[in-house]
Design goal:
- The complex is a heterodimer of chains A (201) and B (287).
- Chain A is of the alpha+beta class and 201 residues long.
- Chain A is 27% helix and 24% strand.
- Chain A has a 7-stranded mixed beta sheet.
- In chain A, a hairpin with a 2-residue loop joins strand 1 (50-57) and strand 2 (60-65).
- Chain A is elongated and about 70 Å long.
- Chain B is mainly alpha-helical and 287 residues long.
- Chain B has a domain at 15-98.
- Chain B is built from 14 helices and 1 strand, in the order αααααααααβααααα.
- Chain B has helices at 3-12, 15-30, 35-50, 58-72, 81-95, 100-125, 132-140, 145-152, 158-170, 185-208, 214-231, 238-250, 257-269, 277-286; one strand at residues 176-178.
- In chain B, helix 2 (15-30) packs antiparallel against helix 12 (238-250).
- Chain B is globular, with a radius of gyration of 21 Å.
- Classes of the chains: A alpha+beta (201), B mainly alpha (287).
- The interface between A and B is large, with 55 and 61 residues.
């Protein structure tokens, strides 16, 4: 290889570091990851970031027990760009959600789940069902819920050294519309009337 | 073997070949644990160490470089920065085959840039300069709890309690929380912050300008060795330490075998930092 490539390695390092610097500002990338060598420079590491996924309907917040499969949670925490957050939110919104009435037990509060997802299931917790698991042939009349909006947020921690106080801060968030009654009818083959009746349960 | 014999042996050794062999060892022991990379790397490293003629072939390093590029670059937002640095170093080994000068230049620039960027981020975020980052880290990060206990008097178990509070706040179970603190931690955090920024700036500038400013060229190896020995004895990221030491070794002057010996000595010493010193010392204190 000729002298033209002699400085290829430092050149690559510089290019990746510049891209990283830009993405820290435009896409909320943590300085710790991405080739910029900003590790151990800030509290805002991907390890202290958490992903929060929830739905809302008529102003009411609904906790959701959901771990997305389409986006790597480590990537989402380190690189919570609008695109990555939208992919996660759209995956949540694409499911048909049933009210999780049977499960009222709160999970252990600590430690943070390994994937960094919040999985608080309250009385109004919801459980995702894929369309193939859902239908009258199962003989179950479950309580259908159609949240109007799905939210995904990545949060971090702020530390005040004067008071040793920590608070949660929002780093990035998106929201997408939930499925409509017509969309669920098309997915499941059930009539609108039947679905509307299930949604009232 | 007497140290003078070792120095003579080092003086006669092929610097590039030693650096290449140590890099293969590093890849096997501390490389990225993704099977797509791990398995072929172990196979290639075993072949390279068994048949040293292979590591003088460009094709050998070309294959290793492509393997790393295909696996490490797409994961750059989830893997540690030193895995990327190892990729750059593999590129450097591939392009500088047969030229110790080019390898030394690459090593100096990679070390200089890496430390320069590390110092830049510490100055840029603001949380490091005002001591907040190290204050928080000493209170929460269990890896530093023994150090925090000895140096700043943070009671044992504080990191565990505080990390539970952090998890509760992160999960939204608490709106805010006050961490258990220690009165001495603030000055310790400030002193450590300034020390780290100073030594990182010195390493960066001295390696980047080693050939232009004589005094910087003379202090660069001492600065890097001091940084590695002081930092990685506390934060035991042996893979990163080894990589810096291999690059440091590769850029020493061939007529300075004592410098090579120092790099190799610290390289081996790093394994001592893996020992459970806090357990051993607390066990001794009990008996």
């Amino acid at each position: 290889m000729g002298p033209r490539f002699a400085l290829l390695a430092p050149g690559l390092l510089l290019v990746v570091a510049i891209v990283h610097l830009v993405r820290v500002h435009t896409s909320h990338v943590t300085p710790w990851k991405g080739g910029g060598f900003g590790m151990f420079s800030t509290i805002d590491s991907e390890g202290d970031r958490t992903i929060e996924i929830w739905a809302s309907d008529r102003g009411q917040r609904i906790e959701a027990d959901f771990n997305p499969t389409g986006v790597d949670s480590r990537l989402l925490r380190a690189y919570p760009s609008e695109r990555n957050l939208l992919a996660c939110a759209q995956e949540a919104a694409s499911h048909i959600w049933l009210r999780n009435e049977g499960d009222t037990v709160k999970p252990p509060l600590l430690p943070v789940p390994p994937l960094g997802f919040l999985s608080r299931e309250a009385l109004l917790g919801y459980r995702a069902r894929r369309p193939r698991l859902f239908g009258p042939e199962r003989g179950r009349m479950e309580s259908l819920r159609l949240p109007s909006t799905w939210h995904v947020a990545v949060n971090g921690i702020y530390f005040d050294p004067a008071t040793s106080t920590i608070v949660r801060t929002s780093i990035s968030s998106v929201e997408v519309p939930g499925l409509s009654l017509d969309q669920v009818a098309a997915e499941t083959g059930l009539t609108r009337e039947r679905l509307a009746s299930m949604a009232r349960n | 073997m007497r140290s003078t014999n070792l120095v003579r042996l080092l003086a006669r050794s092929d610097q590039g070949e030693v650096a290449a062999k140590l890099t293969l060892l590093l890849m096997v022991l501390y490389g990225l644990t993704v099977w797509q990379l791990e398995i072929p790397t172990i196979v290639l490293a075993a072949m390279g160490l068994a048949f040293p003629g292979l590591i003088r072939r460009r094709l050998f390093w070309g294959v290793l470089t492509i393997l790393q590029a295909v696996v490490v670059l797409p994961l750059c937002y989830t893997v540690d920065n030193h895995k990327l640095l190892l990729f750059y170093w593999t590129v450097a080994l591939a392009v500088s085959l047969g030229s110790e000068e080019v390898l030394a230049l690459n090593a100096r620039l990679l070390i200089g840039l890496c430390f320069g960027l590390a110092a830049f981020w510490k100055l840029y975020t603001g949380e490091y300069v005002n001591g907040a980052f190290l204050h928080y880290t000493l209170l929460v990060d269990g890896r530093f709890s023994y150090f925090a206990n000895v140096v700043a008097g943070v009671p044992v178990g504080t990191a565990s309690e505080n990390s539970q509070l952090v998890a509760a706040v992160a999960n939204g179970l608490l709106d805010k929380a006050v961490l258990s603190d220690a009165p001495n931690i603030r000055p310790v955090a400030m002193a450590l912050s300034y020390w780290t920024i100073a030594i990182e700036c010195l390493v960066s500038v001295s390696f980047m300008l080693a050939e232009r400013v004589a005094i910087l060229g003379q202090v660069r190896n001492a600065a890097l060795l001091l940084f590695v020995a002081s930092t990685y004895s506390v934060a035991t990221v042996i893979g990163f330490a080894w990589l810096l030491l291999i690059m440091g070794f590769a850029q020493t002057k061939s007529d300075r075998p004592n410098q090579k010996l120092l790099y190799l000595g610290v390289f081996l010493l790093m394994q001592m930092f893996r020992m459970p010193w806090s357990d051993l010392l607390s066990g001794m204190a009990l008996t």
